[in-house]
Amino acid sequence: MCEHATEEILRLEDVTLRRGSFLLNQIRFSVRAGEIVAILGRTGAGKTLLLETIAGFCRPEAGRVLCRGTNICRIPLHQRNIGYLYQDFSLFPHMIAAANLGYGLKLRRVPKGEIQKRVETMADRFGIRSILDQYPGTLSGGEQQRVALARALMVRTPLLLLDEPFSALDPATKEGLYRLLREICQEFQCAVVLVTHDFREAAALSHRVGVLLGGTLRGVVPAQELFDAPWDEETRCFLGLEAPEKE
Amino acid sequence: MDWYPLYNSLRIALISTAVIFFAGIFAAYYVAKAPRLVKGLLDVVFTLPLVLPPTVVGYLLLRLLGPTRPLGTLILDLFDVKLVMTWWSAVFATVVVSFPLMYRTARGAFESFDPDLAHAAQTLGRSNTWIFWRVRMPCCRQGILAGTVLAFARALGEYGATSMIAGYTPGRTATISTTVYQLWRTNNDALAFRWVMVNIAISAVVLMAVNLLERRNRTGRKEAAPC
Questions:
Q1: Are A137 and B123 in contact (CB < 8 Å)?
Q2: What is the share, in percent, of chain A residues with pLDDT greater than 90?
Q3: Measured between CB atoms, which of A83, A88, A108 is closest to B123?
Q4: Which of A128, A192, A201, B192 is the most interior residue, by most CB within 10 Å?
């Protein structure tokens, strides 16, 4: 579990963003180093939009996104050093796994020998050494996910955003990756924001869970209190704690 | 046998393919991202030469670049360069006629590109220009390559617009296609047939080279997933 003494990596202060008729409304929460926060919500609740706003794909109309105390709203996406993992992993299909891993370092002009050394160290940590010379198309879902995670962490990112990263995987692979994610989160002291619609996944993987419904964050509570917290009626319905009212 | 038409055709086709490669990619990239209305409008403009008869394209080019027309006069006055009835006049014709093939194929490739790949690359720390050449282009390489080959083949075989704007002057503006027509018109069937075979051979070699390149890529990448 995350210690309160650890550094605060991410803080959202009343972040508001409109997309057509959808409103992401005054979102506020924070994540500390080594902590995993899951954001639960239905499809269309604004989970991905929230992650994209943190990453910099969209700029909030109001509020601030602070990373290590600095407002990053005006910093270009490619200068934010935030890791982002997609549901389909988004590995570059024209590069072998090793090149995918080394991509971020190559951009930072790290010498070739150093890149190779760091790629091999990271590959050992993630158990993907044997597949380094393979193209993503030849890898299983679990292997692709490991490569994608390792790639994001190669650039020493303090913040990792995961957009339903385990939804396409089988239960056994998921379990292994949950364990791995928890370990690396502690080891690399990075803050993780994970969006999912899977209650079980949110409770099993994260330290704290937030519920996002209709663009509004209904609260963020410790994972073990997810089903006991004093939620409003709509959230209780979403969590299956209360039957929806019949009209 | 005078080989000038072969040299001239290859020169014109290579230059116009180089121009079309960059112009087609540039146009395709921005049109693929443009709002629907702008996209529809630009699409019509860029594709028009594909459906217009080449003689119409030639006529329009003559109206634009002819020595008595404003642009032709301006270039003639400023640089003492004639834009029609020279070998490079044919480059204008082949660029316009072949451009839609590159543009449409590249646009299809860009539209099927997964934008998440570009986003993932951005989060790893690079600007759009770098990502365009190192991620988007390699992922769309099949479409780009196909467009380039089609544009080259079309430029090599262009006749209508070329004959109108560059004419047929042996040893100066003659290309394989204009030479074949002139030889056939003057009843020199044997030589015309020889040039036809040369044209077929070049096109076949180009297509085989592309297929070989593609197969080598595919084998090298085992069964890498398409973008």
A1: no
A2: 41
A3: A83
A4: A192
The ipTM value here is: 0.76
User: Do B155 and B120 form a contact (C-beta atoms < 8 A)?
Assistant: no
Q: Choose among A78, A83, A88: nearest Cβ to B116.
A: A88
User: For B50, what's the count of Cα atoms within 13 Å in the CB-facing half-sphere?
Assistant: 14
User: Among B30-39, B59-68, B116-125, B184-193, where is mean pLDDT lowest?
Assistant: B116-125
B92: containing domain: 4-175
Phi-psi region of A75 (alpha: psi -120 to 50; beta: other; left: phi over 0): beta
- Say yes or no: A204 and A138 in one domain: no
> Do A77 and A165 belong to one domain?
yes
Say which CATH number the domain at A219 has: 3.40.50.300
Rounded CA-CA distance A56/A71 in Å is: 12
> Are A5 and A56 part of one and the same domain?
yes
Number of Cβ atoms within 10 Å of the Cβ of A108: 14
Q: Which amino acid is at B141?
A: R
Cα of B134 to nearest chain A Cα, Å: 10
Average pLDDT, stretch A67-96? Answer: 88
Chain-centre distance for alpha carbon B143: 14
